[in-house]
Queue: 2 jobs
Job 1
Amino acid sequence: MTQTIFITGGGSGIGRATAVLFAGRGWRVGLADVDRAGLAATQALLPAGMAETYVMDVCDRDAWVASLDAFTGGGGLDVLFNNAGIGSGGPLAMTSFDEIDRVVAINLVGAINGAKIGHAYLKRTPGSCLLNTASASAIYGSSGLAPYSATKFGVRALTEALDGEWAAERIRVRSIIPSFIDTPLLNTATAATNRSIRETVTAAGMELTGVEAVAQAAWDAVHGERLHTYVGKTAHRMAFAARWMPGKLRKMMRGRRRG
């Protein structure tokens, strides 16, 4: 029987690369995004008949139900990939409340919506998996990315909480924790500066990780036993520093804001 994965943020970046990988290995893919053109572009990269698209905002709970019902035919789902997210950068004091609300709504509440609504479909398939996209910013609070970092900490916490809650139902819960990924999200301008997140990241000497590596990590996470899968050198270095050198990591974050 063909396995199924429903991917939010499927119109570009990590979502698109993951769709290509899973469809190429015989999975039927549901692609959700607010970007109709992006969805069509992703679908065009996949084998014929292997993908269905849904123009959907992860903040819209009715749209979640309608899209999952349509994709599953009211049946079960093997993987729900909570991947949709937006970037935000700059000093918190200079960030508008509208931007803060939007980041929290999409990155965190959207993931909670997907988990709560998706549960009914996942529990119909023993051994199913909820996969969440967190971030290296969920390892240690990142100065200059406070709202974004806070939402990704929330996604990590959601993963850990549901890993406990859903174990008895044989629903596996996993997260990928990537470094900064080379996607359009990094082109977002940072508050009170003329620089994009991409420029801020590269100026700090941190590498960008390709989306193909993240897609492979998503595959490994779905099929493996690790609760959190780190992707990219920065993520691994930050995880090591947070555990063994938290003082150095704190100093680095404080110094970043003085620079």
Job 2
Amino acid sequence: MTVRTYTGTLGPGLLLVQDSAQPYVARVYRTTNVMIRGAMLFSVGVFLALVLNLLQVQRNVTLFPPDVISSIFSSAWWVPPCCGTASAMIGLLYPCIDSCLGEPHKFKREWSSVMRCVAVFVGINHASAKVDFANNIQLSLTLAALSIGLWWTFDRSCSGFGLGVSIALLATLATQLLVYNGVFQYTSPDFLYIRSWLPCVFFAGVITMGNIGRQLALYDYKFIQEKTHQD
């Protein structure tokens, strides 16, 4: 607790209560901030899932059984909540890892860069559905190059690359299991039950949500810096 000299008529007791309340106020603020960030990331994930999955369904890349389609976006009801939850977890995890490593990510920290990252991710997903290549291998290699280019342009951190690859592999495995159990299917699968370019799209999505989460976490970081400076 900070020791301060107070000469006012109220005595030192009031100042003592104010100092002891500061950590509690900071914890409440950080908890509220995390909840708000999680809700915003969830909303972004749901929106992107609806839009991008609609494109995949319209191009007959992804096929859902007729009995599970229940929305105007031609998607199974569980897809948007799952994508929203994953987006919130990824967006909260990235700044947490940065903090644990002791090296806050500072590369291109502005919303214009984040919006460009989102646009590139949407473009990669769009290319996976609409661009016609001679074979899936060429398409996969092209999307892999674009995904790594997205990481290099908007991230360039080893932690971001490692998390992106790890989460993309886990998401690919989960998708394989879903397709294997008949929840949905891909047309012309060439990588077991899915398309070979799917890990590239997952990787680009992880980097994108990580950048959004890092940008939102800046407000919490600035608040802590201001409180530390004031104290």
